[in-house]
Amino acid sequence: MTAWELKSIAKALQNCPSTPCNFLVFGLTPEFQLWKALNHHGRTVFIDENAYYIAYYEEKHPDMEGYDVSYTTQVSQMKELIKSAREQLQNECRPVQNLLFSDCKLGINDLPNQLYEVDWDVILVDGPRGYSPSAPGRMSPIFTAGVLARSKKSGDGKTHVFVHDFHREVERVCSDEFLCRENLVESKDLLAHFAVNRMDAGASDFCRNRTSPLISSA
């Protein structure tokens, strides 16, 4: 990451309204030790597609908390998955819910149960792989981040969500769909910063002002 990108995330962690700060990171990247150091008194959890990396780094850093997840999506399926999520917006893919009990195709529901009860203050989406049509892509982490932020139960009701590699289509389109342009704080280099407020349980859409038309699967 660039200096500006690191500084932007560090600022959000330093200004975290809750003590300790809850920081969820999708992607076990070279910056993982920095994230832990910046959130020294808080809880930092890493989610990665590679079980070997999680086990390897946990052995070397016993204080690291990480979990592997099996993604069932592919970058080439983005349009189809967004269309499916819109069709299930009032049911399995609603913006406020406990994803542990959801069958939404974009929802990550196989994490440890207690992670769904945490009020996350900062979420960084920097994984999984998204550089080829067959890669898992970041559709599910972005959707999941959007739901976790809107389902927050306590604190100031706002979650700072950062999406890296925002120049790519999946990251940009899914952020527009599930994090929303109205919540975009800033975008520079390859990083976008969203501030997402929690919603009532009966919320019917992710965005107040949808910026993209219904995506065809064709």
What are the defining features of this structure?
218 residues; alpha/beta; Rossmann fold; seven-stranded mixed β-sheet; 6 helices; 7 strands; 28% helix; globular; Polysaccharide biosynthesis domain-containing protein; transmembrane; IRX15/GXM/AGM; transmembrane helix; membrane
Molecular structure report:
By secondary structure, the protein is α/β, with parallel strands linked by helices. It has one domain (3-197): 3-Layer(aba) Sandwich (Rossmann fold). Helices cover 28% and strands 17% of the residues. It has six helices and seven strands; from the N terminus they run H-E-H-E-H-E-H-E-H-E-H-E-E. The chain has helices spanning 3-14, 32-38, 51-60, 78-87, 139-150, 169-178; strands spanning 22-26, 43-48, 65-68, 122-125, 158-164, 184-188, 191-197. The protein has a seven-stranded mixed β-sheet, with helices on both faces. The longest helix has 12 residues, at 3-14. The chain is globular.
- Number of E-type strands: 7
Report the C-alpha radius of gyration, rounded: 16 Å
How confident overall, as mean pLDDT? Answer: 93
- Major sheet attributes: 7 strands, mixed
Q: Assign a percent range to the helix content.
A: 25-40%
- The parts where pLDDT drops under 50 for at least 5 residues are none
Helix-strand pattern, N to C? HEHEHEHEHEHEE
Give the domain tally. 1
Q: Which sequence of strands runs across the widest sheet?
A: 3-2-1-4-5-7-6
CATH top level label: Alpha Beta
Specify the number of helices. 6
The H-level CATH homologous superfamily, spelled out, is Vaccinia Virus protein VP39
Membrane topology: Single-pass membrane protein
Pfam family, one: IRX15_IRX15L_GXM
Protein name: Polysaccharide biosynthesis domain-containing protein
Keywords: Membrane, Transmembrane, Transmembrane helix
